[in-house]
Write a structure and sequence with these properties.
Helix content: 25-40%
Order of helices and strands: HEEHEHHEHEHEHEHEHH
Number of strands: 8
CATH superfamily: Thiamin diphosphate (ThDP)-binding fold, Pyr/PP domains
CATH topology: Rossmann fold
Strand order of the largest sheet: 2-1-3-4-6-5-8-7
CATH class: Alpha Beta
Shape: globular
Number of helices: 10
Structural class: alpha/beta
Strand content: 5-15%
Distance between the termini: 14 Å
Number of domains: 1
Length: about 300
């Protein structure tokens, strides 16, 4: 696990324009929605005046999961579907860090579905950005947990027969305390959703429509553009659980995007854990074992 540098006050120094520019240029397909998500995340962090050493980006496996390599923060590229498990450890090890988890619909709702449910119910202080392209892009175009019925892919050449997961209602009943949906084609709107998610104390989930221009020929930018409608224009009540559930189920000629639900009354896991009440983050505390013991343990694991 990467150890963070001591956290500075948020106002100590403003980040510069290129503070979050990664050393590696993104290698996604030209036109991929993930470019917009990366740019929105970088802009959100700059506008929040967070420094790179105050942020950690963690991902699983997939096209979108390459994001930690394209942004200048502490970062970890973990196993398929295991990003939230690793992020949980990081969050409890240093609860002063702003931890951003990035991934795709296959990584998060398929192999990682179990971790998704339990991270939500624990209300860990994390921000989870899912680039939902409704297909497995990295493995060249198979059906994913959010692929609609009838969609033809490499794994369903005659059309998908399985009902898709709807992440918004799932997050509502799962216990997430900040639930939003964004669209990579509306970057300014997405920036505000991400800023709200990062600053929320608790588990923040943002499902982001991020079209795959290479393998998903159904849910394209042209398909989404006339359908996405911002909840902010409807004066949606983000404290209305049942109203949020109803809006979350909408799909068709009108698909709501924006902030569905926010609950500031539920404590996050780090606030409830007695071990973290005094003494600051675990990462900064004395190890509690001798150097001889720690050297032996490290030698055994290396």
């Amino acid at each position: 696990m990467t150890t963070a540098a001591p956290t500075l006050p948020l106002s100590a120094k403003k980040p510069e324009k290129d503070s979050y520019k990664g050393k590696v240029h993104p290698d996604w397909c030209p036109g991929c929605g993930d470019f917009s998500v990366l740019a929105a995340l970088q802009k959100a962090l700059i506008e929040l005046e967070l420094q790179p050493h105050q942020v950690m980006t963690i991902s699983g496996i997939g096209c979108s999961s390459n994001l930690p390599g394209f942004i200048n923060t502490y970062g970890m590229h973990t196993l398929h579907g295991r990003s939230l498990a690793v992020a949980s450890g990081a969050a409890l090890g240093n609860h002063e860090l702003k931890i951003i988890v990035t991934g795709g619909d296959g990584d998060g709702f398929g192999i990682g579905g179990n971790h998704f449910m339990h991270t939500m119910r624990r209300n860990l202080d994390l921000t989870y950005l899912v680039m939902d392209n409704q297909i497995y892009g990295l493995t060249t175009g198979q059906t994913s947990p959010t692929s609609p019925v009838g969609m033809k892919t490499k794994s369903t050449p005659h059309g998908n027969v399985e009902n898709p997961i709807n992440p918004i209602p799932l997050a509502l009943v799962g216990g997430a305390t900040y639930i939003a949906r964004g669209y990579s084609g509306k970057q300014k709107h997405l920036v505000e959703l991400i800023k709200g998610a990062i600053m929320h104390k608790g588990f923040s989930f943002v499902d982001i429509f991020s079209p795959c221009v290479t393998y998903n020929k159904d849910n394209t930018y042209k398909w989404f553009a006339p359908r996405v409608k911002m909840l902010e224009d409807e004066n949606h009540d983000t404290t209305d659980f049942y109203g949020s559930m109803e809006k979350g189920y909408k799909w068709g000629d009108e698909i709501p995007i924006g902030l569905f639900w926010k609950n500031d009354k539920l404590a996050s896991l780090d606030q409830l854990e007695p071990v973290l009440e005094e003494g600051g983050p675990l990462a900064y505390r004395k190890l509690g074992v001798s150097k001889e013991q720690s050297d032996k343990l490290i030698a055994e694991l290396m």
